[in-house]
Specification:
heterodimer, A: about 325 residues, alpha/beta, 18 strands, about 30% strand, elongated, B: about 280 residues, FAD (chain A), transport (chain A), ETF_asu_C_CS (chain A)
Chain lengths: ~325, ~280
């Protein structure tokens, strides 16, 4: 039997790789090195031209299926194709991103091929040839170590929690002719918000809560824009209708881990912490000195956010 | 299994028989404590509720039933206590419940639970299955999708809008930075996203009615499975820990708001190096 490999699944949107692809490859390379095997990456629905660069992130082989029917992610077509590739390549580990795409795809593949799957991994280790991963449970209130047993073993890694490391791989591009097989789901259309930084991928998040007092988030937006970050919101701000649900950070919203999280006018409910406590640096700005957010923030300013935030904006502009 | 053909209602729509997959979980306000075995949590003093994403599923199922006619059946794998959550869903307006209660189910991983749910659905006709995108305890995002795979039906995850027309379901699914619209023939499964609806509270008459609605409790043997057929778990929790405790940090003092803002920006730039 040929040598097993680590199989990474790239994620593209409109023929550009998403950030998670580089995180998956970097972590995949590290796992392949600990096992002592090559790293193969699969690119579905994009061209060889953009795929070449994946060799710079440690890929030895780059399998490209630039099929028209795979341009847009649709779970049944993708599952059929990837299950076939897994069958042919016989990987010991399959690694992909726990994005909205990867969560659905990995769950369907795991059931199809009867393989163990660990979702939202924040750390992956190899012990005696098997994966032992660390993943949050209970909305991040617990971190669990989970041992996988099976072949292959699937790890879906949480966006923004693995570092991107350049590494030389052989980078051999191979074109695949694939059969999407029987499919039921039809892609109708997509509506994307252009120019908006995705919360789960953002390096900086500025969030507003009840303290904003209305739907005018301009001061929050200005600070986020200045730092090339994203705007988040607490559940109460979303429930009030001030922000779309897609902005909600928390246990029943998005779980984020930016380098910098600035909470403005957010008191800090336990469910909100669950969504942002893995941020590297947390800053809180709140009028109430007793707000629970201050017990978790690295830096706090007690004061009116409408006074403080514009002053922060001025200070940052001075740096640039 | 398969497409269940029920007579059309007066409006000429086909009725939909809907299954909701429901899990009982600790309420999100709960403080979670690791149990003495180090691989599970203390459940004694915890308030157990319907998984919030499953609550959206119950609500959506009831709305689709109200619009098209049909029925809503709640299906859960759980313990004695889970009956309370199923009754709550019945009080909201679901028609019947099935609880799979078996100590052998407790050792299952996500795929094992999905096999149990799929086996239970062999004898229940359905057109549509609705489930939460994830349960907020394990946060695995796996069971519902695996059920769809085992039943060989299409699934769409994280849906904020669903419409049934001519035997097809059209779903708007949230993705990073946008929304994707997909269509699939029934029978199908979709999972919920916050924004799909605002779940109703059970009314007092609803609670009274729920007491008389059918609720079957079954073992694995009743649905033709045993622990072995459900499958040996391939994932196993070996340890649980708390995330690194975030210490309350520095409250930045200063003579003026201006001074505080300047001090903060200096720290973030020079010490933390995050801006």
């Amino acid at each position: 039997m040929s040598q097993q490999c680590v199989l990474a699944i790239a994620e593209q949107s409109d023929a550009a790789f998403r950030k998670i692809t580089y995180e998956v490859l970097s972590e995949g390379r590290r796992i392949a090195d600990s096992i002592g095997c090559p790293l193969t990456v699969v690119v579905l629905g994009a061209g060889e031209d953009i795929s070449k660069e994946l060799g710079e992130y440690g890929a030895d082989r780059i399998l490209v299926a630039d099929n028209q029917d795979l341009r847009e992610y649709v779970n049944d077509a993708y599952t059929n194709v990837i299950a076939d590739i897994i069958d042919k390549e016989n990987p010991c580990v399959v690694i992909l991103g726990a994005s909205t795409q990867g969560k659905e795809l990995s769950a369907r593949i795991a059931a199809r091929i009867n393989a163990p799957l660990a979702m939202d991994c924040v750390a992956v280790q190899v012990e005696n040839g098997n994966l032992v991963v660390t993943r949050p449970m209970y909305g991040g209130k617990i971190l669990a170590d989970v041992a996988l047993d099976g072949n292959p073993q699937i790890a879906a890694i949480r966006p923004n929690s693995m570092s991107i490391v350049k590494a030389a791989g052989a980078g051999l591009v191979e074109k695949l002719d694939v059969d999407v097989g029987k499919t039921d789901i039809t892609f109708i259309e997509k509506k994307m918000e252009t120019g908006k930084v995705e919360l789960t991928e953002a390096d900086v998040i500025v969030s507003g809560g009840r303290g904003i007092g209305g739907s005018d988030f301009s001061v929050i937006e200005e600070l986020a824009d200045l730092l090339a970050g994203a705007v988040g919101a607490s559940r109460s701000a979303v429930d009030e209708g001030w922000r779309p649900i897609s902005d909600q950070v928390g246990q029943t919203g998005k779980v984020v881990s930016p380098n910098l999280y600035i909470a403005c006018g957010i008191s800090g409910a336990i469910q909100h912490f669950a969504g942002m406590s893995s941020s590297k640096v947390i800053v809180a700005i709140n009028k109430d000195p007793d707000a629970p957010i201050f017990s978790k923030a690295d830096y706090g300013i007690v004061g009116d956010l409408f006074e403080i935030v514009p002053l922060i904006i001025d200070e940052i502009k001075r740096l640039k | 299994m398969g497409l269940f053909t029920t007579p059309s209602n007066k409006k000429g729509y086909r009725k939909v028989n809907i299954i909701v997959l429901l899990k009982q979980v600790p309420s999100t306000e709960s403080f979670i404590e690791i149990a003495d075995d180090g691989v599970s949590i203390k459940t004694d003093d915890i308030k157990m509720v319907i998984n919030p994403y499953d609550e959206f599923a119950v609500e959506e199922a009831i709305r689709l039933k109200e619009a098209n006619g049909g029925s809503v059946t709640i299906l859960s794998v759980g313990r004695e206590k889970t009956i309370e959550s199923i009754r709550t869903a019945l009080a909201m307006g679901a028609d019947s419940g099935v609880l799979i209660q078996d100590s052998a189910a407790e050792g299952c991983d996500s795929l094992g639970i999905a096999r149990i749910l799929a086996a239970a659905l062999k004898d229940i006709p359905f057109d549509l299955i609705i489930a939460g995108q994830r349960a907020v305890d394990d946060d695995n995002f796996q069971v519902a999708v695996a059920v769809a795979e085992y039943l060989k039906i299409p699934d769409v995850s994280m849906v904020i809008k669903a419409e049934i027309t001519n035997g097809k379901i059209r779903c708007s699914r949230t993705v990073e930075g946008g929304i994707v619209m997909l269509e699939a023939p029934l029978p199908a499964l979709f999972t919920t996203q916050r924004g799909l609806n605002e779940p109703r509270y059970a009314s007092l008459p609803g609670i009274m009615k729920a007491k008389k609605k059918p609720l079957d409790i079954k073992t694995l043997a009743d649905i033709g499975l045993d622990a072995e057929k459900a499958g040996k778990p391939m994932t196993r929790i070996t340890a649980m820990k708390y995330p690194p405790e975030r210490e309350g940090g520095t409250i930045i003092e200063g003579e003026s708001a201006q001074a505080k803002a300047a001090a903060l920006v200096k720290i973030l730039h020079e010490e933390s190096k995050v801006i």
